[in-house]
């Protein structure tokens, strides 16, 4: 059963200094086989499912209403799948299922694993600006890197993207309204609340996402990449529903 502490038992707020999300298309049926029931892939053209890694510089994460100076500052690599949850009431909620979370702060790993099912691990995370205005984020322990090209006019979709336009791609940029955790016949639902979320497409010069590689999908295509800056964000207290296996 979901323990009380791990049910996101109180609302939380934070500030996202900057957030970058890389979304990858994978075969829908292969993703479906990796998800816990009752979650199903949020698919495109009935062929593709999507997984994403979010890179977020988070400031002042704390229980909602607490003073900002009590908050935690940390960098997050969040690995997630785009899913839908068919509720007992007949709705199909759209949201994210967390596959793994990595952070540069051991304290955040401890707290994250105490209050959530988001699978926190502590890794090294380095960031640096590149000559010309590009940027690189990397983790040796996490077998991860992404390098953004310097801004230079209009950004093209990644070559292997299944989307025909950035408007299509935007549906799978995140964040989504809900995050789900599943344990036996219980589904935990956490609703996020965001303000001024206007993601901008960015050009990815190179990347490696070791965690996604080890999942063994037959295809892993970079589908889009979006960035935002300076965003207030909060999460409501979690709620649970019972479903029938």
Give me the secondary-structure topology:
Blueprint: E1 12-27, H1 28-34, E2 40-41, E3 48-63, E4 72-86, E5 92-103, H2 106-115, E6 120-122, E7 126-129, E8 135-139, E9 144-148, H3 166-170, E10 178-183, E11 186-194, E12 200-201, E13 204-209, H4 210-213, E14 221-235, E15 239-242
Parallel strand pairs: 5-6, 5-10
Antiparallel strand pairs: 1-3, 1-14, 2-4, 3-4, 4-5, 7-8, 8-9, 9-13, 10-11, 11-14, 11-15, 12-14
| Element order: H for helix, E for strand | EHEEEEHEEEEHEEEEHEE
Whole-number radius of gyration? 17 Å
Largest sheet: 7 strands, mixed, barrel
Approximately what portion of the residues adopt beta-strand conformation?
over 45%
- The CATH superfamily label reads Acetoacetate decarboxylase-like
Q: Which segments are poorly predicted (pLDDT under 50) over 5 or more consecutive residues? A: none
The tally of structural domains comes to 1
| Mean pLDDT over all positions | 93
**The CATH C-level class name:** Mainly Beta
The CATH level-2 architecture is identified as Beta Barrel
Strand order of the largest sheet: 1-3-4-5-10-11-14
Q: Note the total helix count.
A: 4
First-last Cα distance: 15 Å
Judged by helices, strands and strand pairing, the structural class is mainly beta
**What is the number of beta strands?**
15
Shape annotation: globular
- Assembly level: single chain
CATH topology (level 3) name: Acetoacetate decarboxylase-like
Helix fraction, binned, reads: 10-25%
Structure description:
The radius of gyration is 17 Å and the shape is globular. It has a single domain (5-242), classed as Acetoacetate decarboxylase-like. The protein starts with 11 loop residues before the first strand and ends with a strand. By secondary structure, the chain is mostly beta strands. It is built from 4 helices and 15 strands. A hairpin with a 2-residue loop joins strand 10 and strand 11. The strands form 2 sheets. A 7-stranded mixed β-barrel has the order 1-3-4-5-10-11-14. The model has no long low-confidence stretch (mean pLDDT 93). 33% of the residues are buried.
């Amino acid at each position: 059963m979901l323990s009380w502490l791990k049910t996101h038992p109180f609302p939380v707020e934070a500030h996202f200094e900057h957030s970058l999300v890389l979304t990858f298309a994978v075969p829908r049926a292969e993703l479906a086989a990796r998800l816990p029931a009752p979650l199903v892939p949020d698919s495109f053209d009935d062929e593709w499912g999507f997984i994403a890694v979010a890179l977020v510089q988070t400031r002042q994460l704390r229980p909602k209403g607490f003073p900002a100076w009590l908050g935690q500052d940390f960098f997050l690599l969040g690995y997630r799948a785009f899913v839908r949850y068919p509720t007992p009431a007949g709705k199909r909620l759209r949201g994210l299922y967390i596959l793994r979370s990595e952070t540069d702060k051991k304290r955040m790993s401890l707290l994250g694993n105490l209050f959530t099912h988001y699978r926190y691990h502590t890794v090294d995370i380095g960031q640096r600006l590149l000559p010309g205005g590009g940027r690189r984020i990397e983790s040796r322990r996490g077998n991860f890197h992404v390098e953004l090209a310097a801004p230079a006019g209009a950004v093209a979709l990644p070559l292997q993207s299944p989307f025909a336009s950035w408007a299509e791609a935007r549906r799978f940029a995140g964040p989504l309204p809900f995050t789900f955790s599943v344990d036996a016949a219980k589904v935990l639902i956490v609703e996020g609340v965001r303000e001024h979320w206007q993601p901008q497409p960015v050009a990815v010069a190179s990347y490696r996402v070791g965690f996604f590689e080890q999942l063994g999908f037959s295809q892993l295509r970079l589908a889009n990449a979006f960035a935002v800056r300076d965003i207030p964000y909060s999460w409501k207290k979690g709620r649970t529903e019972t479903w029938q296996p």
